Amino acid sequence: MADVVIAIVAPIFGVVICGYIAGRVRLLDKAAIHGISIYVFNIAIPLLLFYAMVKIDLPDVLPWSYLLGYYGCALGFFAVAFTVSGLVFGYRPREAGIFAFGSSYGSFIPLGIPLVLTIFGERATLPLFMLVATQALVMFPVMTLVQVAGAAHRDQDSRLWSFARGVIANQYLAGIALGMLVNLMGVSLPVALVGVLELFAQSATPCALFALGAALSQYRVAGSLGASVAICVMKTVVFPAGVWLVLRFVLELDSLWLSVAVVLAALPVGINTYLFAERYSTGVPLAAASTVVSTAVSMVTISLVLLLLGVSG
Questions:
Q1: Quick one: pLDDT band at residue 164, thresholds 50, 70, 90?
Q2: What mean pLDDT, rounded, does the chain reach?
Q3: Average pLDDT for residues 171-193, to the nearest whole number?
Q4: Which pLDDT value is given to residue 143?
Q5: Does residue 95 register a pLDDT over 80?
Q6: At 149, is the pLDDT very low, low, confident or very high (cuts 50, 70, 90)?
Q7: Closest by alpha carbon to 62, among 159, 143, 134, 120?
Q8: Could you give the percent of the chain with pLDDT greater than 90?
Q9: Torsion of CA 259, 262, 264, 268, to 10 degrees
Q10: Per-residue b or e along 159-172, where b marks 16 or more CB atoms closer than 10 Å to that residue's CB
Q11: Could you give the angle at which helices 2-24 and 191-216 cross, rounded to 10 degrees?
Q12: What are the backbone angles phi and psi of residue 106, rounded to the nearest 5°?
């Protein structure tokens, strides 16, 4: 079993490591890394999400308990982490928001999609994309509200505009929504268009993994190391354990849906934590360090999660 897990995880993180090395030794400069990231996050991934939703067989009734269970854990964990960061590390609300967001928001787009599809195949498309489609929709408003509420110098209209813009600007949600619309309408895509979408979909996974590694090479693991380690433990160990307990013993979900949710919960800190920190100029060292450290640690923790779930590919 351990050999199978290693065979699944090693290639995925191998591409991430290659991207990290390429960025670290400056085979790619910042402009090149930015260009790859723009292609992945603004073009390839949205088209992958669109095409996946066009092909998927939608069930008559969606398992809403799956979403409620996962996000009940995520939002509850956000609140707990927010409180703990203030009590233990003395963070003010905006820094505490960075700590809490990092502890509950995973790297779904660049790492979660290729990881889950590699492990479980197309049968995991629905449980995967249900969470991919809703993570930003659920978590961004909470994080945005915490940050804009703490910006005392802003007037009320500015806060509301910042909040609305942070919620609406989501190209992934657009790709999923358009794909679902085409699916529900029963529209058949032209063969030539399908060929184009398949090429974009094939490029999305390796490019996303490489871009993630290259982007991580730009962050310095310095400052707030103790809090960063705390986030790492909470995000890659405690949070997935909580999701497993709730979905397994409270909601008693199907094993595939349970496994997908737990693997996604075990993902490292999402890069959006760093982007929020940069945008609001708060907790930047904390966000950068926790993103890099948790991604490195997750190579081990995700392998352990897969072993505990009995995943064999």
A1: low
A2: 85
A3: 86
A4: 87
A5: yes
A6: confident
A7: 134
A8: 38
A9: -140
A10: beebbeebeeebeb
A11: 70
A12: -100, 170
State the CATH class of domain 2-307: mainly alpha
Average pLDDT over residues 266-285: 84
User: Two tokens at 246?
Assistant: 């709730």
Give the pair of three-digit tokens for residue 79: 């609140």
pLDDT tens by residue, 34-85:
888 888 878 888 898 889 888 877 777 777 899 999 999 999 999 999 999 9
Cβ neighbors of 309 (< 8 A, separation 6 or more) are 259, 262, 263
For residue 90, with 0-12 CB atoms within 10 Å meaning exposed, 13-18 middle and 19 or more buried, which class applies?
A: exposed
Residue 91 identity (one-letter amino acid)? Y
